[in-house]
Structures are given as structure tokens and as C-alpha cells.
Amino acid sequence: MTDTTGTDNRTSASGQGLHRTIISVDAMGGDRGPAAVVAGLAKSARKNKHIGFVLHGDGPELQKLVAKRPELSGICDIRHAEGVVTMDDKPSHIIRHGKNTSMWSAVESVKSREAEVCVSCGNTGALMALSMLRLRKLPGVSRPAIAVFWPSRNPLGFNIMLDGGADIRADEMDLLQYALMGASYARNGHGIKRPRVGLLNVGTEEHKGRGEIRAAAELIAEAAPVAEFDFVGFVEGGDLLSDRVDVIVTDGFTGNVALKTGEGTAKLVNDFLKEAFTATPLSKIAAILATTSLRRLKKRMDPRRSNGGVFLGLNGTVVKSHGSADATGISAAIKLAFDLAQSGFNEKLAARVAYAPGDAQDAPALIEKKPSGEK
Amino acid sequence: MTDTTGTDNRTSASGQGLHRTIISVDAMGGDRGPAAVVAGLAKSARKNKHIGFVLHGDGPELQKLVAKRPELSGICDIRHAEGVVTMDDKPSHIIRHGKNTSMWSAVESVKSREAEVCVSCGNTGALMALSMLRLRKLPGVSRPAIAVFWPSRNPLGFNIMLDGGADIRADEMDLLQYALMGASYARNGHGIKRPRVGLLNVGTEEHKGRGEIRAAAELIAEAAPVAEFDFVGFVEGGDLLSDRVDVIVTDGFTGNVALKTGEGTAKLVNDFLKEAFTATPLSKIAAILATTSLRRLKKRMDPRRSNGGVFLGLNGTVVKSHGSADATGISAAIKLAFDLAQSGFNEKLAARVAYAPGDAQDAPALIEKKPSGEK
């Protein structure tokens, strides 16, 4: 905040009479470096006149990159930060020694309310740790979660899964909060009026699964009518891609393994597909004829189109873009961040989780029955 | 055993001077009914002169089906069983009331040693419960596991993952046993001389993951040189499909979710591919030209080619075929069962797990150091 580089830019941006939603962007953490990030911002700025940025990272480098993009002129405030969080940095180290990093600075802009939402494609663990440290958890939330997209057969083209890896454990109360937060996110972030929520398990029969999951099923079923979502019960791994559910709730360990398994499988099929279409001269001709079809397929499975894991349960919104995101991916994450800020979703989510059963004595009208608590 | 239907067949089979490996087959549990099972047996019998079957299920129906298949003449012993285990039956119910079922009868043939291995495409939970009840766990094994195949970039075309869903929990000692059993299975069932074993986690850095997984990593690293496998350390969901590992160890909850997520993703991509190739007249022409390429892709991803989850850790070998397996899938499961019986793999596996660290005092030469036990 003491660094004044670019402050004039920002003032002039506000001075143009347009109300801009300001997004704080960590320019440094991604695999493709700040050039890809700035290209993504430019892409977003071309499409959206109501957006502005506070960009954190290597000042001189960012000045040069931004100067090349006329779309960013006057709407991009640059904050110099010496340090960069690498993918190998331990979250605990960053919390103790990371004050000079672009990631810390980017989160700080949300804490100080100069920006409404933060976007980073850096180290997920460090970003979550910093976000928890600086933004703090929402009242009533024990474990924040990362909500991720999943390509699916649903009309929107994706499902939402949480927790994608914020925490490696979750008890029944955490799973209930994930359901409440996920439903709120689906409604306010993606316009799904009455989200269908499923609880990930190894079987759809009620007698299966771990104790905390069975207990969570009871809590979520009780909360569903009050919190205005439909609980479809237990779902299995294959349902992450199905159209019978919009929000899938699971612990962060299982969620992270499932996420990476799904990504890996899609990539393997894609590689095999490429090999199949280059195997013989005839298959190469077929590939040329099928260009449009294959491009259509690629688009539907393209993780860049639905890039952005959202941290839920904090006093402020943080969007984690994929580490390998290119300009298209960054721009998708920026769009998501913008939409979330516009909808005021974090305030709505805060109101929703504040009334979880744990606080039911304070809000008897919302959850009439206490959880039966068969643990 | 008191039912003598077809006993003559079997005697005559043995009487032909060929040594046959006898496989016990539950004909009834699959989604496609006994006709698909018998078609699968016929397919196997055409390729393999050293195979014989004890077939369990509805006697009159099986007699009719087998009579239509000249390949099965004289090598298929039919055992009538009234009951059928359905996909919805609870394992606990089958254990108490399932004595009259074809599944029970099929497992019993392995217990009595008239068959060397059992194959069923019925209810996984019931099959595991019955197998544990009748065959009992191997000495030193606390939780048996299901080892499943995974299409991968490895030369063999697949990786092995366990546990695919036999149990929903696993502590560090269980995970160590899965590593020992998985390595033994890869070596003796699939000819991988020095299997590379990885432990599924949410990150490859050593500080990540649950306590029992970190403890298991130490135990497995200690056991690796003695048990003649390479421990590659932590792997992530995406590595289920990679060529840096042959055997992936995880608990049955995570394994089952990952398995179904992977299957679901492959199916979704396949469906999207079909839609892409039927979208326009040009794409339909491309699809015709690309027939061979698409067939090649399909074959590489075809779950039927590597059908068969193997139950590890019991006094006897049980192969679980996919519930929806057709003749090709059944035949693949039969081939796996045959190969396992031929290699005497269960005896080798029993010898391996008998010397887990828990028994190290009885076999100091195999595991020199006691586990450090940092739980």
C-alpha cells in the first residue's frame, strides 16, 4: 500500500465516470509467467468495460508488459513486490516469511477492500494458507473449501465439486458446510436457482460408506429444505460428470485425487486420440476432415473454459486459476472473479453458513431440528 | 458338492489326458445374464485347451446354454444353485442367508480345491464378504484388497491400483500390505520383474497428506529392497495413468472414487466424441474415414480388454469381473484367472505378506529394521 507506482492510473480509471469492479491479480505465480497473466487481463478488458485491476509482482517487468496492451491503459494499477511464491514453497514457510511476495500483496488488496476479489495462478496450498491468515474464516466456518468445476452432461457444461483440496480431512459438520457453501455458490455464482447437491460415497446404498459420511447425509438432508437446495443423497465417482447433480460434496483428499484422476484420464484419451489420428496416412486425412468435430470435442473438454477454483468460507473471495493457465484460462478466471464480485456472492454465502446447525440455538427458525448426531 | 450333475463331464475331461486348470464360474450375477457368461467361457475354451470349468447357477438353463457350445463339451461341470445374489443385496444378508446362491457355490469350489480360482461378475461387496467368510484371510493380512487395472501409458497398457473398494478404511500397516500384495501380483500375475510402487496422496511433497499415509510411506520404503520392488514415493491422481509407476496403493474409499471418476471421464469423452462425429454431414464422412483410427482408440481404452479385479489377501484366488461384462469381458477375466492359477501366484503372495513388519520378529532376515512407527 506504501508503493505508489501506478496509483495515478487507478485514479484516472475511477475518474472516467465508469464504475469498475477492481480485481486484485497476482501476476507472478503461474507456470507461464507474468506475460500470460497480462495477456489474460487484456483479453478480459477487451470484453468488459466495467473491470479494473490491481496487479502485483515485479514492477518494472509489469510496467513493460502492461504498456504494450492499450486495452489496459488507465485501468491497471501496478504494485511492486520483490518475492515470488514458487510451486515448491511450503505454505508454512510463506506464512512466516512471505510478506514481500506478490501473492501476499494480492491477498492484502482484498483485505484492505481496495479490490473486491483476488486471482492467482500460484501455489494452491500457499494461497489458501495466506488467504486464511489475512482474510480469516467466516463466522461459523471450520474448514474453508476449494470449489472446482467439472465438465459434465449438465446444461451449463459443468458441475461444481468441493472440497478440491483445501484440507485433507472433513468431518460431518464440515461436509454440511460444504453443502451449504456449494449450494450458495452454485446459486449466486452460476445462476442455478435450486441446486441439486450430492454427497460423494463408494455406493448409493445407505448402508455403505464411512461413519462421518452417513452422519453428514442426515445433516445435509435436514438442511436442504431450509437452505433451498435439493439433496439427491449419495453419489459416486461417475456422477461427478453426470446431469443428476450440480454440486458434489466430499473431503479435500478424495476431491483432489478425483480431480487429478479426471484430468489425467481426459488427457490420456486426448493423447491416444492424437496418436490414433496420426497413425496412418488415411487417418491423417480423416483428421483433416474431422478438424471441426475434433475442435468441438476439445472445446467441450477444455479446462481453460471453466478455469478457476474458488475458495469458499473466507471474509473475501479468492479465485485460484490453474497453474498452467494461458491467456484464455486467466481470462476465464477473471470473468469468474468479476461475476462473483458483481453478485455480492460472498455476503450471501456468509449469511447462509452463519446459520449452520452448530449455531442453531442462535437461529432456531432456520434449522428447526437439532442434528440427531448419530456419529 | 452333493449335486452330481455334470460330474461325468468333468471326469471325462480329466480322462482325456490333458491337464486342465479348473476355474469355478458364477454364471448368474452379471447384468447380461448367464448367456453372456457361457459365451465368454466358449470364447476362452476356443483359445485355450488347458482350461476346464465348474459352472454355478440355474442347472436347466445352463445345461441348455452349454449344449449349444461345442467348445464346452466335456470341459464344463454344471452345479445347480437356486438362489442368485442381486446387485442390491446387502453383503451381511448374503452371509446369513446366501448358502443356496450360485455365488456361494462358486466360492465353495475354491475352498474345497476342486477349482483353483473363482470368477464372478456379481455384487462386489457380497463376493468379497463371502470370499472372506469361506476362504479366510491369509495369515498376516488384516484387510484384503481388490486390485484393479487402469489404462495407462505403460508398455503393458495398464497400471494396477489397490484397494479398488474392498474396505473403506486402511491404516499404515494395511497400506504396507497392499504394497507387498500389489508388487507380488504385478510380478507373478503380469510378469513385471521389479514393480514400481507408488502411494496415492494429494501432493508429491513429503510434508503433505494424512498421518497414516506419511507413516505408510516410511514402512513401504523400508520394505521395498527386501520385497524386491521400487518405491517411487507419493503419486497423485494423474499418475494412475502414467508410466512412472506400475502399482498404486491407496485406501478402498479413495480408490473406488478414483476408479469410478476415471471410468466416468473416459465414458464422457467417448460420448462427446460420438456427438462430435455425428454433428454435421462432413463430420459423418470424417468418421467413416477415421473408422480404423477410432477403433484403435476404443481398443486402447476398452475396459473389457483388461477386465477383472482380483481379490488379494485370501486363501484362494477370486476374480471379480465387471457387472456389465459381455463375452469378451468375461473371457478376459477367465484368462486372468487362468494365468494367476498357472503362476501359483497366491502361494507366492502368501509367502510375501507372511513377513510383513508386524511379524518381523519371526523373520528377522526379511525386514531387518523394525518400522520406526512415527504415527
From TrEMBL, chains A, B:
Q: What class of enzyme is it?
A: transferase
Q: What is its EC number?
A: 2.3.1.274
Q: According to its UniProt record, where is this protein located?
A: Cytoplasm
Pathway connected to this protein: Lipid metabolism; phospholipid metabolism
Q: Determine if Cytoplasm is one of this entry's keywords.
A: yes
Catalysed reaction per UniProt?
Answer: a fatty acyl-[ACP] + phosphate = an acyl phosphate + holo-[ACP]
Please explain the role this protein plays, according to its UniProt record: Catalyzes the reversible formation of acyl-phosphate (acyl-PO(4)) from acyl-[acyl-carrier-protein] (acyl-ACP). This enzyme utilizes acyl-ACP as fatty acyl donor, but not acyl-CoA.
What protein am I looking at?
Answer: Phosphate acyltransferase
Organism of origin = Maritimibacter dapengensis
